[in-house]
Amino acid sequence: MTPNKWNIPDLGFGVGLRSVHYDHILEHRPPVDWFEVISETYLESGGRVRYVLDRVAEQYPIVLHGVSLSVGSSDPVNFGYLKLLKALADRVRSPYISDHLCWTGVNAHNVHDLLPIPYTEESLRHITQKVKQVMEFMERPLVLENVSTYAQFSSSSMSEWEFHARLMEDSQCGMLMDVNNIYVSAYNHGFDPKEFIDRIDPALVCQYHLAGHTNKGTHLLDTHNDHVIDEVWELYQYAYQRTGGRNTLLEWDEDIPDFDVVHQEALKAREYRTAEQVAPSGPRVRPSTPPVMRLTPLEKNERVNSMSHDL
Ligand SMILES: [Fe+2]
Q: What domains are defined for the chain?
């Protein structure tokens, strides 16, 4: 087991706070270890939404998870957004904040999609500078999540995991390792998901995400609309054996079932924390898929319609 660099405590097994579950949570106070909340939902909210957040924050640990930081955009850091985010983080006592290694817009226009970045030296320098600015302003660790991707840049000069590892080394940010996203991208681009995990310093992993996805045959869509598949659970187990306990969060954003179903799915993670040790250099498993995926216009539209759920 490897402690994380920032000594962030392992909060246990959490679920994402979603509005369809507000009434259930307030009435039943379920024994959830912690909640992850989408920052943008609460940045400037009032009324019932703020009331619910405050009640939840009184009873549970909360971690903020954003979708608008857009560190990969050519735009400068949006300090107006950060000011609101810092106030919210202070309000709910979020021990760190997380967002995504991606871009979500340009020229101050938010497209509400988590878009892939080119893995080049130039983008690494640009994002490193922005990440440093964000952490200095926020005065708490920033943890960036790997996103599911459906296309790659021909200009990339390094792998996704090398880019993420170097960004963490240069900027001192942490990683939110979304195991489902690794699996989805590995399938779509034809790489070994275990190699991704092996190349990330376990001390820099601060949190895990787990979610379901949709298998379209030629590619996977990160839809968060179902149970986690066995292969992703096994990948979580593989990653966990390198890091030890880390905050683990189950995401379910489409066709959301009753709260207890979501909670039980999150608690399945306990079974994979006690399983037999697997050597980090274990056998490689390359998902059976074409090495390069070319999306048709129809598939691109389908992806755009579902992509906003990759939180
Ligand atoms: Fe995620």
A: 13-307 (3.20.20.150)
